[in-house]
Design brief:
With about 120 residues, this protein is α+β, with helices and mostly antiparallel strands. The chain has helices spanning about 5-15, 40-50, 80-90, 100-105, and strands at about 15-20, 30-35, 55-60, 70-75. Strands 1-2-4-3 form a four-stranded antiparallel sheet.
Length: about 120
């Protein structure tokens, strides 16, 4: 299986979250989370993006159906790692999560990479 930028955009659009996280001291940062039951897929995404983001096993708190599959989350929060993801979004915007991405991008425009010029 080959991981591409387009695959990553689709994966985030379908199995991801684009949001902010608020820390106790009041600091707010953007984050991109990708969930999957296949850790290897998340490791391949991490390798393709050349990021250091952690992959965390997610515990289901209220699992009414007693599912046995383990779920993993790739947690992208560092400025450097987010810039790599958002740079891809400038080439191919997510469909479902486009509004959320644009809102986060506008909130943190001084923090994130400026838009890529056309043709690059």
């Amino acid at each position: 299986m080959k991981i591409t930028d387009e695959y990553i955009v689709g994966l985030i659009d379908g199995e991801g979250t684009i949001s902010t996280v608020k820390y106790e001291e009041g600091r707010i940062r953007p984050q991109v989370l990708i969930f999957n039951t296949n850790r290897k897929v998340l490791e391949m995404v991490k390798k393709h993006l050349l990021i250091k983001a952690p992959i965390i096993e997610v515990k289901r708190v209220a699992d009414k159906f007693n599912r046995k599959k383990i779920c993993y989350r790739l947690q992208i929060r560092s400025k450097q790692d987010l810039n790599k993801v958002f740079k891809i979004f400038e080439k191919q915007s997510p469909i479902i999560k486009e509004k959320k991405y644009r809102k986060i991008k506008n909130m943190f425009k001084s923090w994130l990479i400026p838009e890529c010029p056309s043709g690059s």
